[in-house]
Amino acid sequence: MRGAIPLPWGGMDQYERQRMENLKFTRFRIAGSIGIIWLDRPPLNLLREDMKDELLAILENMAADDRVGIVIVTGSGEKAFCAGRDLAESHSWQTSSNPPLEEVWDRGNRLIDNILYHPKITIAALNGATLGGGCELTLPFDLVIAEKGGRIGIPEASRGVFPGTGAMQLLPKKIGIFRAKEMVFWGKVITAEEALSWGLVNVVTEGKALDAAYDYAGRLDKISLRAIGRAKEIMNRHERWADASTLHFEKREFSRIFLQPDAREGINAFFEKRPPFFNKTQKEEGEER
After folding, report:
1. Which residues contact 186 (CB under 8 A, 6 or more apart)?
2. Pairing relationship of beta strands 151-153 and 129-131 according to DSSP bridges
3. How many angstroms separate the CA atoms of 166 and 156, rounded?
4. DSSP-assigned beta bridge partners for residue 144
5. β partners of residue 125
6. Is 161 within 8 Å of 137 (Cβ atoms)?
7. What predicted TM-score, i.e. pTM, was given to this entire model?
8. In which residue ranges of the chain is pLDDT below 50?
């Protein structure tokens, strides 16, 4: 599979140059009918809110671009697709008098909705660690390709929070409620090979995930993209995915739990490089004592 199609990482056209100028945490190329987007904060490509804004803008541009039929998202570097949220940014919200948690929730779920209902075929190419928010980001893609030896998981529970960007709805639909609970409750991190057997990824490749994704895109491009686009829309309708506007309870609970003592302890422990200590008898803030 590798090398079957030469990867076109050559020069940019004017369209790309104009839109690349303001990008700090992402980059992209358009090669024929294939759009490639990189999360570009190596080595770990940690998610920030401004990175999400950039990713949303590129996805929206590609949705409106008649040249593009297939969109691939991958990570820069060799170490990670995305190893999760930038906890330094999260920590700043916990110390803020007005944390933007509802805005954070809405942005994250708009991004998930955008990918899930994107009019083009979407492929995630996982080049290494895919953890926390990075794992959640993969859930709405049409196809997910992982490199052999990669790690995939949702370790938020070890930081005193629960996954807040699509996992509660999409993960059980992909792998079943019991395995979803196992991943969320234990913060379980599994290998790419386990993820394949669980149904979390479509393909595990011996070589580079981006090479394999580009090969798959080349094969899809020989089929009627209009037909498979309609098939995608119909299948998504049958699955009755929830969208961000319907997740009021989850949104409220995410905002509340993020400011509780356990979440503060979990994030502090990360920066202090120690295991977290969660006080099992401590009541939540705002709860009657």
Report:
1. 157
2. parallel
3. 13
4. 124
5. 74, 145
6. no
7. 0.82
8. 1-10, 14, 288-289
